[in-house]
Hints:
Layout: E1 6-9, E2 13-18, H1 36-44, E3 49-50, E4 59-65, H2 68-79, E5 84-92, E6 99-103, E7 106-108, E8 116-118, E9 127-136, E10 139-146, H3 153-160, E11 201-209, E12 216-220, H4 225-237
Parallel strand pairs: 4-11
Antiparallel strand pairs: 1-2, 2-4, 3-4, 5-10, 5-11, 6-9, 7-8, 9-10, 11-12
Amino acid sequence: MGLPPIIYEDAALLAFDKPSGLLVAPDRWDRTRENLMALVHARRGTSVANVHRLDADTSGVLLCAKTKFALDFLSGQFQAKAAEKTYHALVVGTAVPDEFSVELALADDEHRPGLMRAARKGGKSSATRFRVLERFRGFAWLECRPLTGRTHQIRVHLAVRGHPILNDSFYGNDTALLLSNLKRGYKGRATERPLLGRLALHASELTVTHPESRSRVTLRAPLPREFLVALKYLRRYARV
């Protein structure tokens, strides 16, 4: 497999549009699975390091540093919550508030290794702000702004609020986005496939302070084609 599309590069930074299904770093349980950083190291050298991570099933902006100084400078921004992150998600449900925030402690799920759970005691604090961009019958299109960077944070926050992300096999339900459920008189049910078959979460933008110029830089990853197709049909047949 080749490298994903590069959306930004200079002497200090290297940013990719990571596809859904690709791990960022080696899997702790299955070291044979392909991952982005192994591909990067094979083609760009081991001095390149990822500054943050995305879930394997989440697509979008993934930032790497090309020098040790850049890595330390950028990592400090994530730790200090100075990096601004914007995601987009298609969620299941209709009773979604126009704007809402979730502040919740998260901890490892002892019963499901690798997953997270809401924690009444202990855990690590997390916070995300949400805003509805569009509403459809049975679904809503959201802008998500995580203020912290916990594992599966957006996914857990939305599931806890009763608005799971479409196709979230860990925290969601079995709802499928089918054209036959949107369009009256649809005749292709026998061979129908979902309009969107992957986790409906995309890291659209990341804004950081550049380690050399010290100016704010915004990196953007366009919505994947399958998102555009799904939104096209939702807007045509299911807008409310």
